């Protein structure tokens, strides 16, 4: 274990800076909070606010080493909502993008160009009902398994967007992957009679809910729980799981390898 005399602790940031100048190192392998700039992130969220609100308050308390450039949503929040008041108080822009499927992804791409990574705090996009009715149940299931749709009613970000953005996107899934992919995982878990429910934070890829997993957390449930308490417990776990994943990522403790695995130390 690395040990350093207390009197030397104050000089460590300066020592790292000298080493970076000596070797012309533009990117840290370890982050020094007082020297390295905070990661710039945009947060994407839909109507459900529990992950977004928890993320904002964690940032306010200094628990998340990020700079929030903006919040983007496909849900129009009123000017007197607590989220909008919070953002205005801290000077964080809020962008409402009303869209069907991914028709405004070019605009979204412009808004996030200067970010280091994106956080999806329960961000989903609705599929038009006429498309759902036209394609039918089985074909939608097929599309969902290929990453085009997250469920019959929702989709996330397209492969074209991910390739154009070219940086990491971190999502929180309200289920314990690889089980219960797609929409309404709490109901899927409830119907399956599970004894543990959970949440998964993972990198977003073109394949639905199949990106490398960063963090997972679980909560015990029993026959005494109903669907409402399943959802409540799931939401509590989601908030913790997303915050821990973001913190680990910002501290450079997440190392992806192979196709869909990570080392988190």
Automatic annotation (TrEMBL):
One of its GO terms (molecular function) is formyltetrahydrofolate deformylase activity. The keyword rRNA processing does not apply. It comes from the Eukaryota. Pfam families: Formyl_trans_N (PF00551). One of its GO terms (biological process) is 'de novo' IMP biosynthetic process. Keywords: Hydrolase, One-carbon metabolism. Residues 152-246 form the Formyl transferase N-terminal domain. The keyword Methyltransferase does not apply. This is Formyl transferase N-terminal domain-containing protein.
């Amino acid at each position: 274990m690395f040990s350093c005399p207390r009197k030397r602790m104050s000089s460590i940031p300066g020592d790292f800076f000298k080493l970076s100048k000596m070797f012309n190192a533009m990117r840290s392998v370890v982050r020094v909070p007082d020297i390295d700039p905070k990661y710039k992130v945009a947060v994407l969220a839909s109507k459900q606010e529990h992950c977004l609100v928890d993320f904002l308050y964690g940032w306010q308390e200094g628990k998340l080493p990020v700079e929030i450039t903006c919040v983007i949503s496909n849900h129009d929040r009123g000017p007197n909502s607590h989220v909008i008041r919070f953002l205005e108080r801290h000077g964080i822009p809020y962008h409402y993008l009303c869209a069907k499927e991914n028709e405004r992804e070019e605009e979204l791409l412009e808004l996030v160009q200067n970010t280091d990574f994106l956080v999806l705090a329960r961000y989903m996009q609705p599929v038009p009902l006429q498309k759902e009715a036209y394609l039918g149940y089985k074909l939608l299931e097929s599309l969902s398994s290929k990453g085009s749709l997250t469920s019959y009613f929702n989709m996330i970000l397209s492969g074209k967007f991910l390739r154009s953005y070219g940086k990491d996107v971190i999502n929180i899934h309200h289920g314990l992957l690889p089980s219960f992919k797609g929409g309404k995982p709490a109901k899927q878990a409830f119907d399956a009679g599970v004894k543990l429910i959970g949440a998964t934070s993972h990198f977003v890829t073109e394949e639905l809910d199949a990106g490398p997993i960063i963090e997972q957390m679980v909560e015990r449930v029993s026959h005494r729980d109903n669907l409402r308490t399943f959802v409540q417990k799931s939401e509590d776990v989601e908030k913790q799981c997303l915050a821990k994943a973001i913190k680990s990522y910002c501290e450079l403790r997440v190392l992806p390898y192979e196709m869909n695995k990570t080392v988190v130390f």
